[in-house]
Design a protein that fits this description.
Chains B, D: Keywords: Oxidoreductase, Pyruvate, Thiamine pyrophosphate. Chains B, D: Its cofactor is thiamine diphosphate. The complex is a heterotetramer, with two copies of chain A (about 325 residues) and two copies of chain B (about 400 residues). Chain A is an alpha/beta fold. Chain A folds into two domains: about 180 residues, Thiamin diphosphate (ThDP)-binding fold, Pyr/PP domains (Rossmann fold, 3-Layer(aba) Sandwich); about 120 residues, Rossmann fold (3-Layer(aba) Sandwich). The relative contact order of chain A is 0.12. Helix content of chain B is about 45%, strand content about 10%. The N terminus of chain B is likely disordered. With about 400 residues, chain B is of the alpha/beta class. Chain B has a five-stranded parallel beta sheet, sandwiched between helices. Classes of the chains: A alpha/beta (about 325), B alpha/beta (about 400). Chains A and C meet through helix 4, helix 6 and helix 10 of A and helix 4, helix 6 and helix 10 of C. The complex binds thiamine diphosphate (TPP) (2 copies) and magnesium ion (MG) (2 copies).
């Protein structure tokens, strides 16, 4: 295969398969990743083909999963860890923040931590509590971690490849409600840089910046705005640590207006940093304050309310209008 | 049916001989036995009613004998009551599964096969005891008097927990695996501080046993000698993972290494579950601290309605467990012993039907919450940001109404 | 006593003592809080006077400490938990984020979570790894928690009183390097609101906003700037969740310039949210972008480097100059 | 001294009979014994050298007999070597404490009293084994060949870990209690995957035993049957908290509930620590999985130089443990048995002096790191934000130089 249309889920599966094939040190670890292939089937078939020594069903203990992955990395392995849902990463938080993120620095560079932590995240699937959260701030704020999130199948495939190849720990957020969205994947293309943003739609009046599940919403909003004669540029940030401020700055200097969209709560969401830094970089260019659309300062609500809670087309367009009104 | 009378709240430990009704004075003996049991590599299973529906006598099984005293007071009427609880719980559970298929619920976690473990333990409790469930304790909720339809709110997606925990001393369902064992331990520390003779029971699964929180709960409860019973339903599976992925030796043995007894009970034997839980609760009340009960049972259905167990387990295994069905064995016994007649079963069937109907009706009528509920109860004392966002969002929503009004 | 000069450490100790006296449901829990009185002696003498049932040495397990505190709160107690150092709160993070923060909402308001988590935080004491961190973002971002930090003895005394009286979980960050700073405490005064900012020095050219250990640095910077003829207003935010944006806005609308100072890394530090929101609120008032002075995107360095790492007088004054240069 | 020869790395498990040098074929027997031991409430202490300096024979103590075979090969010269290790370690430790008082170190965590536990276990290791220490394993570091002055960097505040872990297979000190037990378990999983017959040892304290991470390490290593030895130095105190605040029964018993053996050894008996660790390592190499060793010892000094133990423990307790001093008892034995003469002790004293002098000199000459080191090694592959901040900070610093240059 070279170019093939596939879902994000399938692209991730293929990417893991390729990594397992190419490097015997790559391991998959997590709850139910074996026979079941993970609750989202991202690891489907991998244990069958690569065996229990490489695709490892772990005890139900996230701290244990990440803690042993660190040990395996110290032994020269490259573990790709699956956390079953966003809300279940917290038992592993201590190992991630105090150990995984700091080991390389603590060792003055003498050891590397090539560990990928895959987390299906964000909402929109009608799930019960703890299954719809967007905790990216809680990782992006932590020095030593890298944080990324693909929005489409091609990025899913390539960004996961790059994350696994990285010698740094990467928190890999997968937009679970987009798992079944399809797109073309060129498995022989030379990918762009992992931490660079990409303009996914050009425009001149205002920039929308998003990542993961919200890119699609922003693209739809841009299309809707176009019908009203507004030219909206959409930037897929792709990486939340580092954030490609250079790339974003180019867009904002052109459009002079920016709205950042994410599912995570606005308060101290990644949009806060983007607003602060872009304002500093583009102070004399901005016609309006950077606006943010995101979750409220409230626990992710029960499923029947999530459509209202989640930033949707209307809320994004409302922010576009408010920005343009300045 | 009152398997256990609700004793008034009395100061705890004021008398070492104080015992809950039905809890004979043998609390010490089984503890010793349990410790002895825990030392064998081959697990001993406390069983008082065989899969064939025969009651185990002290002569049959000296191990069981020690626990028999804890169900000496159980009358035939009580047995019918336990049977009824199991049947209605199963019916409710089946109804919920059906409602999920019909799109009325987003998800359901079935207790199919675990009725005896839940009803047996649930009926061992006094009203003033406190329960910390996982997300699967529908049978225990039933015993506590929680209206079963209240359980459905979170699975329908209208709330994250639809009952007041303090009305029935039944805490909200906890989804993060293992967390509630620490809450139970803390609650039990509080019970002890209050000098009450209530006990606390924490439910958890075989998978949960791997979580650090559960070990910490064992440590805290051992160190503070807290009146808590750790009740593990070992249903053999944590989603797709068999118990061998969680432990190398039977779980009940773990307790001893933390300094308290652990017992494995036939989790499909409602009588044995009742007896063993009563014993464990009696220990708690008597100031003897925590106990681990491992109810050896089986998850007959999928993990949840989202799960497909054919991916990871063999039909034969499930079929083998069908022969150990908790409801069937009690029915066999009741029929053989003349403890219940056809009229009983028929009227129970009618009661089941009525319950099913009510559940369907209540669920279908369950309204979606108001949008602005997003902002409710985030804080008890309020928070400026929530106020600001609530007002902004209300204005935003109103802007559409205004437009539509045009 | 009514007005007395005491250290922040002493004020906290007195405040805990008063809470234990006034409400039999108040408990103190933590590692070494008993006979030792805590590694910083904040609970000194309390176990002796209130007994082991109220001042509880716990096993060495932070998740267990917070998890059992939640259970005690459900039973009607008001636990005040001590985490020994900032870097050791992470094993408890899951219980704090998924349970403590959400319990009230999960129960539709039927249960309350009056738990205070005291954390000696931030640097400047020449300590080894994990003993100097400022993780406030990781709590302030989480709905359901309140986050505060006193900067002086009077606030230490009263804010802790108020935190213990609150029916919400409060993360109470204590500026450990200021523990021995003295100030007057009026134990009979009627305190201001817990979550309101306070102008600690008036000025007209620029506003410095800080909390906890950085208030002192900002006050010194303001004094130094005054000598150069610059009139600097200093706002002690006191609360990081909620942040008193109304109060801060008043100051910024007057001075038209704002610099936020904290020890935590700048990237997604609380300054990011403040910059974003104040810019939105004061877009037409600001003469310069909101600038931020804080930690770098690097693990807290070894002690011999902390003086360079920490925002000090010079770095604050540099930011003041940069802001004024716009 | 080579207590244990360094075997070449060989594929693991290729032969069930493969044993490390000095590890007799009795690996199984003590395991059974340990399990049996674990069942007694009264802990059995494996002791091969009494506090009075007498060697325990198989006749004296059948329990100890099983472990004696693991030190059959130990010569008098080896014993002198162990003695030397302990003396030099103590001297280094004392020197570090003094340096802290002089302001050269910010902090020091003394191992005083724990020399036998550390040297005994440390000398049981092969070069290809891997060590995961806490922050107090200065004696183990010594055995691994880590230059002791390297340990001082983090306590002086010039780094967070001053050695390459892979040079001596000695991981960096870990301060967050219990975390390293999981790293050790993961590392051991990797060793097994590689088919190597190396083993891994994880050190931790009595306080650490309460952390969930340690329980998870037990679970993972049991489930994957990983070649890891959990070596707990139970020094009776976790800062100010006695072991009763952490556990209700002796810690070594905890292992059994996770499905592997646990043994309590006299932690002040270097020979017993050597034997028991060798036994546990042999189990690991033989594919028998994890073992818990509880070395029963005592923290003679303060927790760290910041601590004041008079606030919480009685002098009498400390004095009682002085009588069990690990160094003294070996000296008594060496003297009584003619295993060492005055010349040996004198030359060792001179060696100690030299070590102390070198440590002082190296520490005092230890330079502060360059300011820009703040930005080094945050990432292996770089990070745009770090680059940006580094450049900004450099420019900021340069602005002063520019001004000063004026
Ligand atoms: C901390 C955490 N990790 C993962 C999950 C996802 N999850 C939900 S149920 C479950 C299996 C639980 O197994 P067990 O404890 O045996 O209980 P059972 O479902 O069999 O009743 C898992 C992994 C979770 N809810 N919480
Ligand atoms: C997670 C965590 N919590 C708290 C601390 C603070 N602390 C450092 S050492 C210590 C006591 C450790 O006791 P123990 O495990 O017995 O080891 P010892 O110091 O006796 O060698 C504590 C509480 C820490 N380092 N990490
Ligand atoms: Mg299960
Ligand atoms: Mg200790």
């Amino acid at each position: 295969m070279a170019v093939e249309k596939m879902s994000i889920a399938k692209a991730l599966n293929e990417s893991l398969r390729k990594a397992l094939e190419q490097d015997p040190k790559v391991l998959i670890m997590g709850e139910d990743v074996g026979k079941l292939g993970g609750v989202f089937r991202i690891t489907d078939g991998l244990q069958k083909d690569f065996g229990e020594e490489r695709v490892i069903d772990t005890p139900l203990a996230e701290s244990g999963i990440v803690g042993t992955a660190i040990g395996l990395a110290l032994r020269g392995y490259r573990p790709v860890v699956e956390i079953q849902f966003d809300g279940f990463v917290f038992p592993a938080y201590d190992q991630i923040v105090t150990q995984l993120a700091k080991m390389h620095a603590r060792a003055l560079g003498k050891v590397k931590m090539p560990v990928v932590v895959r987390i299906p995240y964000a909402g929109g699937i009608g799930a019960v509590e703890h299954h719809s959260e967007s905790p990216e701030t809680l990782f992006a704020h932590v020095p030593g971690l890298k944080v990324v999130s693909p929005s489409n199948a091609s990025d899913a495939y390539w960004m996961l490849q790059q994350a696994i190849l990285s010698d740094d720990p990467v928190i890999f957020f997968e937009p679970k409600r987009r798992y079944w969205d399809k797109g073309e994947v060129d498995t022989e293309a030379i990918p762009g840089e992992l931490h660079k943003a990409r303009v996914t739609r050009e425009g001149s009046d205002i920039t929308l910046a998003a990542y993961g599940p919200m890119v699609k919403v922003c693209m739809e909003a841009a299309a809707a705005a176009a019908e009203e004669g507004k030219s909206v540029e959409v930037v897929d940030l792709r990486s939340m640590s580092p954030i490609d401020f250079d790339g974003l700055q180019v867009s904002v200097e052109k459009t002079r207006r920016l709205v950042v969209v994410h599912e995570a709560p606005v308060f101290l969401g990644t949009g806060a940093e983007i607003a602060a830094r872009i304002t500093e970089r583009c102070f004399y260019h901005l016609e309006a304050p950077v606006l943010r659309v995101g979750g409220f300062h409230a626990p992710y609500p029960p499923a029947r309310l999530e459509d209202e809670y989640l930033p949707g087309l209307d809320r994004v367009l409302d922010a576009v209008d408010r920005s343009l009104a300045y | 049916m009152t398997v256990e009378s609700t004793a008034a709240r009395k100061p705890r430990r004021s008398s070492g001989t104080k015992r809950a009704a039905g809890a004979a004075s043998a609390a010490k003996a089984p503890a010793a036995k349990a410790a002895a049991t825990a030392q064998n590599a081959e697990p001993q299973l406390v069983q008082l009613l065989t899969p064939e529906g025969e009651r185990v006598s002290a002569a049959d099984n000296p191990d069981a004998a020690e626990f028999l005293s804890f169900v000496e007071d159980i009358t035939t009427e009580d047995l019918r009551g336990l049977y009824r609880d199991m049947v209605l719980t199963r019916r409710f559970d089946g109804e919920a599964t059906a409602l999920q298929r019909q799109g009325e619920l987003g998800l359901w976690a079935s207790l199919l096969g675990q009725e005896a473990a839940q009803i047996g333990s649930g009926r061992a409790l006094r009203d003033d005891d406190y329960v910390f469930p996982t997300y699967r304790e529908h049978g225990v909720a039933w015993c506590r008097g929680v209206d079963p339809t209240n359980l459905l709110g979170m699975f329908r997606g209208v709330n994250h927990g639809g009952w007041d925990p303090n009305t029935n001393n039944f805490h909200l369902y906890t989804i993060v695996i293992g967390s509630q064992t620490l809450h139970a331990t803390g609650y039990a520390m509080g019970v002890a501080k209050d000098g009450a003779d209530s006990a606390v029971i924490a439910y958890f699964g075989d998978g949960a046993s791997s979580q650090g929180d559960v070990a910490e709960a064992f440590t805290f409860s051992a160190v503070y000698n807290s009146p808590v019973v750790f009740f593990c339903q070992n249903n053999q599976w944590a989603i797709s993972e068999p118990t061998e992925r969680q432990m190398r030796v039977p779980l009940y043995q773990r307790a001893q290494g933390f300094g308290f007894p652990g017992v494995r009970v036939d989790g499909n034997d409602v009588l044995a579950c009742l007896a063993v839980t009563r014993w464990a609760l009696a220990r708690a009340r008597a100031g003897e601290g925590p106990t681990l009960v491992e109810a050896f049972t089986y998850r007959m259905g999928a993990h949840t309605t989202s799960d497909d167990p054919t991916k990871y387990r063999r039909d034969e295994e499930t079929q083998a467990w069908e022969a150990k069905d908790p409801i069937l064995r009690l029915k066999t016994y009741l029929l053989a012993s003349g403890g219940a007649d056809e009229a009983f079963f028929e009227s129970l069937e009618a009661e089941s039907e009525a319950l099913g109907k009510r559940v369907r009706e209540v669920v279908r009528a369950m309204p979606d919450p108001d949008t602005m509920a997003i902002f409710e109860n985030v804080y008890a004392d309020g928070h400026a940001l929530v106020d600001e966002e609530r007002a902004q969002f209300a204005a935003y929503l109103a802007s559409f109404e205004a437009e539509e009004g045009h």
